[in-house]
Design brief:
There is one protein chain. Among the domains are: 59 residues, no CATH class; 256 residues, Type I PLP-dependent aspartate aminotransferase-like (Major domain) (Aspartate Aminotransferase, domain 2). It is built from 14 helices and 12 strands. Helix 6 links the parallel strand 2 and strand 3. Pyridoxal-5'-phosphate (PLP) binds next to helix 5. InterPro entries: Aminotrans_V_dom, GDC_P, PyrdxlP-dep_Trfase, PyrdxlP-dep_Trfase_major, PyrdxlP-dep_Trfase_small.
């Protein structure tokens, strides 16, 4: 029997820091400059303030206490996080420590490359590791996340077709309705027309549909496999062959690499380019759209179009190759989020080829264990139940039967699970092809006991949905905040990004 935790997050009635303090309170007493020294007149008169800044006045202790309270209210979680499609991993303290060392933390990308040899070597070596895992010829780390790496592909494809004088003809990108929305969105931003293939009963689009969609107008196809439902398209080789016959470029979105790490190579399957999420698969902290890294790799044929600079080795020296006349331009400033790259490198070196292979096996076994156990809870339905093939590292599930029976939806179940100290699961990206979805992913990290706990909490919440549906619908109850109403975000008069905007909007609301 799994013991359910008795949990209550820390809850402080903590004001905003701008509302704290009182005149005269000080954390630090600065010595006033000696009038004789001339320091106070070093700034031009026009730059001197005539009034005091509107900042709260607090002691050092009060500042510490304020931020400690805030951290207790968020870090009160750190439960079991089976957040699917994002492969949550443990971010080791050792790699965190390594990136905090001044030798790395104090580097600046404008330094002369001769003084950056250590970090350039690490990035060059990670490039080599990713080449070995994918068969590609060159990686870059500029993209600030998976979606950004998909955009890199769209930009590279545009530059490639432009260079051949065929951009006016190759105007289409083909993908599936189950691709992550960033695939069609980035292709559209780069100016391509998107063709979305529907799914068949087996969970992926038919080859016939692909054949009908690709033509001399196709610039590229973008595919993730296994997809975000955990379904592996076994016809992938044929897909690439069909697309290549039509002359298109093929891009492998490897967001779900965890289930196939070390088992297949994008290049062997015929792809021209792929991306790995260092923040998901390679143990660097999650965070999309900026503080993450989507490592983008491609064949030698596409390499001239990559964003500059490329980290190369000339003799014994690492250099930043900026001289790339065919480059598609920058995707992001400098060379990307370097501490994340170093963490991913530490993870890959720590795991080794065998460890990476084994981690993939464990993640698939863990998911299939979960699949079996979840199938025993009534009110849940596995997506595409007619598929007999085992799922990979995650499975999209549905709470539709429970919803029909009790009126309790997937948001309410996630909120109520948080009352037991379980981090909310990921439901599904849009559009919801599966009603009332949830997508748990155990990965190689969580122990059998952790997974059992997660399942036991879900089973308990399903039971509560039947017995006391209001309790579940109004959850969370043991967290510092109640339900966040999504519609608030659609109304700019009800949220503010700065203290001044908050004051202005609050005054307007009162009036
Ligand atoms: C298949 C797939 N591709 C791309 C992305 C986008 O990644 P990111 O959130 O790092 O931008 C995701 C995110 O979950 C994904 O599942």
């Amino acid at each position: 029997m799994t013991r359910l935790p008795q949990f209550h997050a820390a809850k402080w009635d903590e004001p905003l820091v701008m509302e704290l303090g009182r005149p005269g309170a000080r954390g630090q007493l600065f010595t006033l400059p000696d009038p004789e020294s001339g320091v106070d007149t070093a700034l031009p008169e026009a730059l001197l303030r005539s009034d005091r800044p509107a900042l709260p006045e607090l002691t050092e202790f009060e500042v510490q206490r304020h931020y400690l309270h805030l951290s207790q209210m968020t870090l009160g979680m750190m439960g079991v996080s089976l957040f699917g499609t994002c492969t949550m991993k443990y971010n080791s303290k050792t790699s965190e420590f390594a990136t905090l060392r001044p030798e790395l933390a104090e580097l600046h990308p404008y330094q002369h490359p001769e003084t950056l040899q250590g970090v350039l070597e690490i990035m060059h070596d990670l490039d080599a590791i990713l080449r070995a895992l994918s068969g590609m010829d060159q990686f870059i780390f500029q993209a600030g996340g998976g979606a950004d790496a998909a955009y890199t592909m769209a930009a590279v494809a545009r530059a490639y077709w432009q260079d051949r004088g065929m951009l006016h003809q190759r105007t289409e990108m083909v993908t599936s309705i189950q691709a992550h929305p960033c695939n069609p969105a980035t292709a559209a931003s780069a100016g391509f027309t998107v063709i979305n293939l529907p799914l068949e009963e087996n969970g992926y689009p038919s080859l016939e549909a692909l054949k009908a969609a690709v033509s001399e107008r196709t610039a590229l196809i973008m595919i993730n496999n296994p997809d975000d439902m955990g379904i592996y398209n076994p016809e992938i080789r044929e897909w690439v062959r069909v697309a290549k016959e039509a002359g298109a470029l093929c891009f492998y979105d490897h967001a779900n690499f965890n289930g196939v790490m070390g088992k297949l190579s994008a290049r062997e399957l015929g792809f021209d380019a792929c991306m790995f999420m260092l923040h998901k698969t390679f143990g660097a902290p999650k965070a999309g759209g900026g503080p993450a890294v989507g490592a983008y790799g491609c064949s030698a044929e596409l390499a001239p179009y990559l964003p500059a600079p490329i980290i190369a080795k000339s003799g014994e020296t690492y250099v930043l190759d900026e001289d790339r006349p065919k480059s598609c331009g920058k995707i992001r400033e400098f060379w990307g989020n370097v501490p994340q790259v170093v963490k991913a490198y530490a993870w890959a070196r720590g795991m080794g080829a065998e460890g990476i292979n084994l981690a993939s096996d464990i993640s698939v076994v863990a998911n299939n264990y979960m699949d079996k156990k979840l199938g025993e809870i009534s009110g849940l339905a596995r997506s595409n139940p007619e598929i007999s093939l085992r799922r990979m590292e995650m499975t999209r599930w549905s709470l539709q039967p429970l919803y029909e029976e009790t009126g309790v939806d997937t948001f309410a179940v996630a909120n109520r699970m948080a009352d037991y100290g379980i981090d909310p699961y990921w439901m599904s990206h849009e559009p919801w092809l599966v009603p009332q979805p949830f997508t748990p992913e155990a990965g190689e990290l969580w122990s059998k006991e952790d997974i059992d706990l997660w399942i036991a909490v879900l089973a308990k919440v399903v039971e509560e949905a039947r017995e006391t549906p209001e309790l579940v619908k109004t959850a969370p109850h043991n967290q510092p905040i109640a339900q966040v109403k999504g519609e608030v975000f659609d109304d700019p008069s009800r949220w503010a990004m700065t203290w001044r905007a908050y004051q202005r909007k609050r005054a307007a609301a009162k009036a």
